[in-house]
Amino acid sequence: MKMRGAGPANDAEDDLRRRWVVSISAFDALIAGDQKIEYKDWMPDGYRESLIRQIAQHAHSEIMGMQPEAAWISRAPSLARKAVLIAKVQDEAGHGLYLYAVAETLGARREDLLDALHEGRQKYLSFINYPTLTWADVGALAWLTDGAAVVNQVSLCRTSYGPYARALVRICREESFHHRQGFDLLYTLSQGTPAQRRSLQEAVERWWQPALAMFGPPDSLSTHSASSMAWRIKRATNDELRQRFVDLCVPQAEALGVRLPDPALRWNPERGHHDFTPPDYDELMRVVAGHGPRNKQRLAHRRRAHEEGAWVREAAAAHAAKEAAKQAAAREIDAQEAIAQEVDAVEEEWPLWEVFVRPRRGVGHTHAGSLRAPDAALALHSARDLYTRREEGVSLWVVPSRSMTSSDPEHKDAYFAPAADKQYRHASFFPPPEGVEGL
Ligand SMILES: [Fe+2]
Ligand SMILES: [Fe+2]
């Protein structure tokens, strides 16, 4: 006979279990239907932890990736190349920020993630740490490792976590500029002197293996692959992506007139792919464990930059606190004046709300319009009545209008104009030579 303990505790437990079963079935159904999971959706702990680990690792790789090229900004051979390099390094910082923000939607704290990087508890793609000895290495690094990143991230744009997928779409657009300008740099060298062509060949030889290693260990040894594939966090395996990358690189290498350093590299008509020598996994694991070239210097540099930037973070926090106090004081005065003069009673009792609708799963909320309502719950009800009467969406946000801050129309130029004369930030600025595909 089944013994029951204290009734209410068991009932509560049963209820919890029942709700868990409902939640996990809803989650599984979304994954099976290739729908996006959003941050307010219920998700299993393992899914959340896997995502935080992968996104943190990705974010760390982006900000660590600023270093090998930052060192070349002052040595780049022309102002145009310096501007391109500055834009690329700035992009990598931006990619880090998009991704830390995505990890934060999952409940991770940015300072904890950075501590984990600085203390070596969380990994990153340490293959980008190989030294950039010559100007040609700067091109080879971008053509090969940013190229590997594009292959990997294009596949991740279909990842099941909505905020990550959307950040990746933006990152991929920018990475294709990184990739293309790297190829352009190398192509310029390939048209140069014999010494320049030699430095191009040597740089490609140094970066080929690190680029292959970017895809991680082989599927048979990859510890997190199976669950990540089942949850559709990853959409292709390490080996599939590595193969795709090699197939794309071969014709591009031909256009550059460089030999990829692999005697086993050849077209296999039966498989419809190139055969190649996989990266040396002992070396790969040694580098992943933090013992690769420049690992220690790069991490030390990162820690120093973080410590030296502490005053900026403190100043920003102090400024924010001061502004918040000023606004609170201003609101108090406003409120007193409103009561005294009984003006603006409508805004007090029926404040304005901005309404945002997510048209379907997987895309962001877009602004639909405004309405007045006495509180958030009624604002939501009215928003449903006003803006979603014809199946316009699947999720609604209402935000008090007075909580929103927008850029000043007068400052339009300062915010948006400078981008117009930086066309080199777009991949299309670097037309590939005739016959070169996949860039
Ligand atoms: Fe990046
Ligand atoms: Fe990049």
UniProtKB/TrEMBL annotation:
Superkingdom per UniProt: Bacteria
Gene Ontology molecular function, alphabetical: phenylacetyl-CoA 1,2-epoxidase activity
* Pfam families on file: PaaA_PaaC, PaaB
| An annotated GO cellular component | cytosol
Which biological processes are named by the entry's GO terms? Answer: phenylacetate catabolic process
- InterPro entries linked: Aromatic_CoA_ox/epox (IPR052703), Ferritin-like (IPR012347), Ferritin-like_SF (IPR009078), PaaA (IPR011881), PaaA_PaaC (IPR007814), PaaB (IPR009359), PaaB_sf (IPR038693)
Question: Which Gene3D superfamilies does this chain map to?
Answer: 1.20.1260.10, Phenylacetic acid degradation B (3.10.20.520)
Q: What is this protein called?
A: 1,2-phenylacetyl-CoA epoxidase subunit A
Protein's organism: Sphaerisporangium album
